[in-house]
Amino acid sequence: MNFKLKIWRQASPNDKGQFVDYEVHDISSDASFLEMIDILNDELVEKGEDPIAFDHDCREGICGMCSMFINGHPHGPEAATTTCQLHMRKFKDGETIVIEPWRARPFPVIKDLIVDRSAFDEIIRAGGFISVTTGGVPDANAIPIKKEVADLAMDAAACIGCGACVAACKNASAMLFVSAKVSQFALLPQGKVEAKDRVKSMVAKMDELGFGNCTNTYACEAECPKEISITNIARMNRQFIGAKLG
Amino acid sequence: MSNKPFYSSITKKIIMSLMGLFLITFLVVHLTLNSFLLFSNDLFNAGAHFMGTDPFIQAFQWVLFAGFAIHIFYGIVLQIQNWISRPKGYKRRAFMEQSPFSKYMIYTGLLIFIFLIIHLGNFFFVKMGWIGNGVPLTSNGEENMAELVRNLFQHGGYVAFYVIMFILMGFHLDHAFQSAFQTLGLNHKTYWGFIKGLSRAYAIVITIGFVIIPLFIYFKIV
């Protein structure tokens, strides 16, 4: 397969940046999107040019590192898929593909397609943890938890923190990410102990970092590679109201 | 840049949604009174007289104005902060909004605000005697609000403007109703489909209800 690529190139955080056109040829339809970029980078290195900088790690769809905005969608046009799990057979032969970094004030571009997502780490540091002393390992059945509740907590915990929700949202809001991290703890007995402080701290940090306000467009849920539900946002809003009133 | 001014992001949204639900309720009352025109001028005039003289309604109208002002103020604050949150946009961005009219709330909202000013100028300000020649009188010497409305709806251009504005209002309401519930945390899988359906039904009923009145008057059906 052959493709025309329009890729955002930016040498450094302060560089103005621009789109540069490339062409790749004889790409296997079974190649992943990142493998296609690898092939292009090999060619660029052979020509003595600077390869395209992009984030990647596990390439198994679970680490949350890959972060490309492909043809108008975070992680590309296929639903519930990370960039590393996106295959070139999902594109048409000869298609022009536009590749951009996540765009949000709290996610500044470091180089090319790599953005600094440490703002998410700051939100986690503000309260995305449990600090109660847990002692020794308890018996697995010592604290009964309803299966539906455990499933909801597990679904929220599936968030890989890639930032696609922020990238997709027209307001660059981080509500889906923060609500998943709030929910995964708030639903379980161990997490409920600090639930009120957690939601207030994490929302305050999210606001301080300059993420946008949620306007319930639900684009985040549609574009999330892990299909995190917007019911988590509603749960976080309930928790926030309860924490402020209580 | 911090997104904290004028309370936290969620608090601002909660204020927006509560004021929005208040205005949604007000629209039902307004439409009910307007619909009296479809039955008789006397009934409409009686309703208008009650709204214009009842002490509770008179006091409450200032609460209503405050509701509009707060909703508009926070709508603009939220939008400005959201624009600041993405200083550089995408070269290619798909239409990803699952609540389609959510993308245009600031624009439909600003157009509704302009309509509101014109609407107040056509009716409320005339009734208050601030502009125009006052409200026409009935043979009994009472204010004939029905006549004022009917006179205005004789103009095709105004009727077209009114209809277009209420279709935009319908788009605004289609997102607004269910969005308020989500913001208040009232989203549960067992009744979320019902709320979304109710939201769309409300938007359609309000739009059709407000639109048929000027159309019926213009085409002399009532």
Describe the protein's architecture and organization:
The complex is a heterodimer of chains A (246) and B (222). By secondary structure, chain A is α+β, with helices and mostly antiparallel strands. Chain A has 9 helices and 7 strands; from the N terminus they run E-E-H-E-E-E-E-E-H-H-H-H-H-H-H-H. In chain A, strands 2-1-5-3-4 form a 5-stranded mixed sheet. The relative contact order of chain A is 0.14. Chain B is mainly α. Chain B has one domain: Up-down Bundle (3 helical TM bundles of succinate and fumarate reductases). Chain B contains 7 helices and no strands. Chain B has helices spanning 9-35, 41-53, 55-85, 105-127, 145-152, 156-183, 192-218. In chain B, helix 1 packs across helix 7 (192-218) and helix 6 packs antiparallel against helix 7. The longest helix of chain B has 31 residues, at 55-85. Classes of the chains: A alpha+beta (246), B mainly alpha (222). Chains A and B meet through helix 7, helix 8 and helix 9 of A and helix 1, helix 3 and helix 6 of B.
Question: What is the element layout, followed by pairings?
Answer:
The complex is a heterodimer of chains A (246) and B (222).
Chain A: E1 3-9, E2 18-24, H1 33-46, E3 68-70, E4 73-74, E5 96-101, E6 109-111, E7 114-115, H2 118-127, H3 147-157, H4 164-168, H5 175-186, H6 189-192, H7 195-208, H8 219-223, H9 231-245
Chain B: H1 9-35, H2 41-53, H3 55-85, H4 105-127, H5 145-152, H6 156-183, H7 192-218
